[in-house]
Design goal:
mainly alpha; Multidrug-efflux Transporter Regulator, Chain: A, Domain 2; rod-shaped
C-alpha cells in the first residue's frame, strides 16, 4: 500500500521533515505516485517504524514489560498488510497474463489473415505470368542485315 509523505509522518508519529531527512539519507525509499507526488510503501515505512502499519497517528505505548508483545502485534499487522499486497499483486499479474494471451491471439489471427492475403496475391501473380499475352498482336520477325542483303 502506498501512502503520501504526510500520511507516513502521521503514521510514524514524526514530523514530515524527519521523513524527508530519512529519504535524503537513503534510510527510506520513495516512489512517484500516479499523480506525480512522492509516495512511500507502507512496508518500507514499517521497516523503520514498526508501529506505522496501525491506524494513522496511532503509536502504541510500549511498556518495558510488554515490549515483545507489542512488537509481535505490530509484526502481525505488517504481515497482514503484506498479505493484502500479495493478493492484490497476484490479481494484477493474472489480469496482465490474460491481457497478454488476448494480445497473442489477436496477433496470431492478424498474422493468419495477412498470410492468406499473401498467398492469394502470389497465386494471382503466378496466373498472370502463365497467361499468354493475347491482347498484343504478334509483330513480324525482323530480318537481320545479312538476310536483307542476300534477299533470302
Amino acid at each position: 500500500m502506498k501512502i503520501s509523505i504526510s500520511e507516513a509522518a502521521r503514521r510514524a508519529g514524526v514530523r514530515r521533515q524527519t521523513i524527508y531527512r530519512k529519504l535524503e539519507a537513503g534510510r527510506l525509499s520513495k516512489e512517484t505516485g500516479e499523480d506525480g507526488n512522492p509516495v512511500i510503501d507502507l512496508a518500507e515505512l514499517a521497516r523503520l517504524y514498526p508501529y506505522a502499519v496501525t491506524a494513522p497517528g496511532h503509536k502504541p505505548e510500549t511498556p518495558r514489560t510488554g515490549e515483545k508483545e507489542t512488537e509481535a502485534a505490530a509484526l502481525r499487522e505488517l504481515v497482514s498488510v503484506l498479505k493484502q499486497d500479495k493478493e492484490r499483486l497476484t490479481a494484477e499479474l493474472e489480469r496482465a497474463r490474460l491481457d497478454a494471451r488476448a494480445d497473442i491471439e489477436r496477433e496470431r489471427g492478424e498474422r493468419e489473415r495477412l498470410l492468406a492475403m499473401l498467398e492469394i496475391a502470389q497465386r494471382q501473380l503466378a496466373d498472370l505470368r502463365e497467361k499468354p499475352k493475347e491482347d498484343a498482336p504478334a509483330s513480324p520477325r525482323r530480318r537481320g542485315w545479312l538476310a536483307r542483303l542476300v534477299g533470302a
